[in-house]
## 1
Amino acid sequence: MNKLVLLTLMLCGIHAASAASHSLKYFYTAVTAGIDFPEFTVVGLVDDEQFVHYDSNSSRMIPKTEWINKTVAADYWDKETQTLIGSQQTFKANIGIAMQRFNQIQGVHTVQRMYGCEWDDETGDTGGFDLYGYDGEDFVIYDMRNERFIAPVQQAFITAQKWNYNPAQLESLKQYLTHTCVDWLKKYVSYGRSALERTVAPEVSLLQKDPSSPVVTCHVTGFYPRGIMVTWQKDGKDLDEDVELGETVPNGDGTFQTRSHLRVKPEDWKGQEYTCIVQHKSLEQDIVLSIKNGSSPPMGIIIGCVVGALILILAVIGVLIWKKRSSGYRTTNTSDTGSEGSDRPAVKA
């Protein structure tokens, strides 16, 4: 469990898209049995907002937003559930296969998958991605330009070779990218447009663990959409050094939060003005909070990004963004069995 949570905390960010860009993403996480965590979890997101959820404890795909619950047919949930029950068995087998490849016989291990598509409703551009990971590292990546799978590690070579020698599967990837996923994304955006295009202004606080701490945190929470800019200035000049920007993570109410940490030497506080500046789509004017004339920032406890009810969501979202470089690939999914559902069944390694 510790390993999974650690990966969650380190890697739970997803880069925001522009106002015209939309995305449909699915995150699968399979975990070895014997820990206090579902063996299989799936989260679906439209424009980085969770709209469906499945886990092996309930064995049922359920809606997470009002707009999806109101707009899809009743049999949608039965069909999606049956697809994911099959995927659950496949992922369970894939953990065993991966453990054999890495000569492992025990311990907590994870197999993850992130896949989906993007669509720009202004330019019409589309893109797709499909990445598999094992224990927080890249395992198999689909290279859409060359229409074949890449094995970043030697242990994944057999899987990549197997999938590359399946012409029907490779063709289904292309079809999924160019048609099925994008078509469902457009439907979902039309269903939930009022919710997806809403704006909620952030709340901003300056926090410090104790008066002697050299670190001040600009904590920003409760905002939507996800994209936000948090910067620091010293006496009106931009600060890049000694600044650490945290990941943007979901709150339990559909909004987001993030943090930016500023490290200041005690002798540098006096006579200097430090300013946290927050820019967001919901704001007519930037939010500006300042510490000046040697005063200390307000006392407080820095709020963490893990809330009990969010652990499942963050584990599935975060573990799959295991490396920032992964977001640069343009890949698509590994299977397609028709257009009755927007998610895809898994393929055995």
## 2
Amino acid sequence: GLDLEEVLAFKEDLAVILISSLFVLLAARLDLAQLWQLGPMVLVLLCVVQFVARPLGILLSTWGSDLPWRARALLAWIAPRGIVAAAVSASFAISMHEAGIADADKLVPLVFAVIIFTVVLQSLTATPLARLLGMRQSAPNIWLLIGANSVARAIGKALADQGIPVHLSDPAWEHCKLARMSGLPCYFGNPQSEHAELHLPLTSISTVLAVSPNRHNNALGVLHFAHLYGEERVHSLRSSEQHGKANRESATFRARQNLFGPDMNFARLSGLLGRGGQIKATRLSEAFDWDRYQEANPGAIPLFVLDARGKPRVVTGPVSPLAGELLIALQPPRETPTTD
């Protein structure tokens, strides 16, 4: 129940300060005149490092793999040296000087020349080269749903029908099997596990929706992914009204239990879908605006709104979609008249 976000942020800031201080200390031992004393042959070494050693290393290490040549070319170009090389060279230079090895004092400026060259050159050219090779990753756009139950599958199918890529996750194999049979990719396991880091497209995820009936699974997912993607991109559905009131041990989790509004929970959604409710998408217009939609669909529960450009947003409270926007809503089952 502890909020570790500020502790983790402080740790990251402290690491940056320490590494920066180490760079300053190591660079303080370097005399710029020593760089000029290396002579023109240092350019030959830099070219060997950039155009021979790195490509050869990538060629050997990826031999027999299924990596495309574009990926190998990008890996062969990007390999900036940094604090590890600087620290090791400084330590080795002292040991070599004490051992009486000639030109030991040239090791540190030589390594710093490699660091400066690789960092500047590769940092400036990495993005254009990735774009040229078609290897630049697009903006994150995958919606991760924690849960592959009937509610999660219905929500995932509604989003996928609008061209929004979704990925489900569930530790129950039966749920994952049904999701995959519906054409929805599903990770079998806990999405916050170390195994998931290797098999989930974490770098392509833009939004996380916790829609598991188990509030503990939702809480773990919210606390884990809120730190990775930001709290504004992580939402959780209450398991039930009782569970919503019981979650008082975590302010972070309670604040994120806003999926589809404060009055919505898993039990209610599951009941509506089980009785024949359907999630449908409707394009609003000037003639058929939000007011007329409510008149034609009484009791409809807004879930998502896509703007005119197709960018989706989650409904977390009162909403008034505009003309031209697409509304994804759960329409309750039609009441069938009874006969005596």
